[in-house]
Amino acid sequence: MRCVLEEAQEEPDVKLMIERSMEEEDEHKEEDGGGADEVEKNGGGCDTLGEDSDDHMGGWDENGDPCLPFIGSWHRPVIVCTAGANCTEEKAEEIISSVEERNSKLLGEWCDMVDKNIAHLPAFPLPVLPEITRFCFSKYECYHQRYWTDTTSETSPNHPYFKPCEMMRVFSLRLSSPIAHPVNIYGTFSIRDGWEPLRNYLFKRSRNDPATISKVEVAYLKEKMVTVTFRSLNSLVVQYCLVDVDLWIKEEGDGSADKLLFCGYVELDAFLDGFGSKLLGGFQGNCHVLDMHYAFLPKGIETVIEVLAEAEHQSNVKFSASTNGFDDEISLYDGTFCGSGSMFKHYVAVNTQEDLHIFLKMDDLQYNWTFKAGVGVVVAPEHPVPGFPQYFVMNVSFRTRGKAASGWQWSCICSDVSTKPYM
């Protein structure tokens, strides 16, 4: 889930944003309860991660500040399930039976392949929820009400910091079968969690601006990969999330001939899937299977990666990130860049005590950075990155409360390379 506080309505000059006065830093540290001696001891102006930094139970962080808003403080926008109100019980039973039969068939085919020791086992078929359930007619809460499916708003970036907690990381979305020719895909792929069940978009394209998938053996659906967070409340953990998908393949014409890639809801159970291992789930459509590589992190910190730069000439730039626990790289940016300003701002989840590795590939050269919450910039280039003569700034913010909070900046301003804490 996005976890960034917007600094201001107006965008300041990027070069002015880079510098920060020592007075502001000292003031910020005093507010966080860290004195000068402790800052000097830790070598970076931010508290180091304590062993018990995320073991505090309840809705309060290490500094005694409330981790608000609590679950249940939201005013539910949907009181009555509209799906249940607009469908007869007989029709609903027909829909439910059809979906259950399809899910059972796909699972049975997958289990048969397991029994036959198929070498390249396809993704586990994720069971799709029916458009309407029996709960939609009863007094029990159905998934439409629980996840606010009638609300298409996106999660606000203005919620507060949280202590390390259970999170979901999505590595990639891809079509598992080869395609005969390039296709244009549009629609939405989002995830709703139980803390604030609004859409967290992984993919969002209109029909007028589709994503073109080239003819490749395995076609990746490239868009921003965000982190979905499961918030803690006292000793309870929000263990479920809802995958909300509506994707189409664009055909020539007015849209009537467009093919449905996948449309439906899938609920994931973090406790059932387990934490710390990479998972692979498939969304079975009529013409393709959409694979999702993902994992649940036991003690994740929402982390923001932002690059500000200026380039006089167009350059092919590719940024990716990874952590200690997984070999897969998360694509941050892959394209051309020219001009000045923010190249990208990306959201990932990092387990406490893990290193965050960031890679830049440009003109057959590779540059590496390593950041760690509470520690700082562990590895970084000692020289400027060619192609950005005026400035190149990388900000990494580990956004949480208390001792785990820290932000770090690696910058190159007019060939002057420096590393320092970032607000």
UniProtKB/TrEMBL annotation:
User: Where do the DUF6598 domain residues begin and end?
Assistant: 167-363
InterPro entries listed in its UniProt record:
DUF6598
Task: Report biased composition (Acidic residues) as residue ranges.
Answer: 22-37
* Domain of life per record: Eukaryota
> For bias kind Basic and acidic residues, which ranges apply?
12-21
Q: What is this protein called?
A: DUF6598 domain-containing protein
Q: Where is this region: Disordered?
A: 1-58
Cite the PANTHER family for this sequence.
OS01G0590200 PROTEIN (PTHR33065:SF117), OS07G0486400 PROTEIN (PTHR33065)
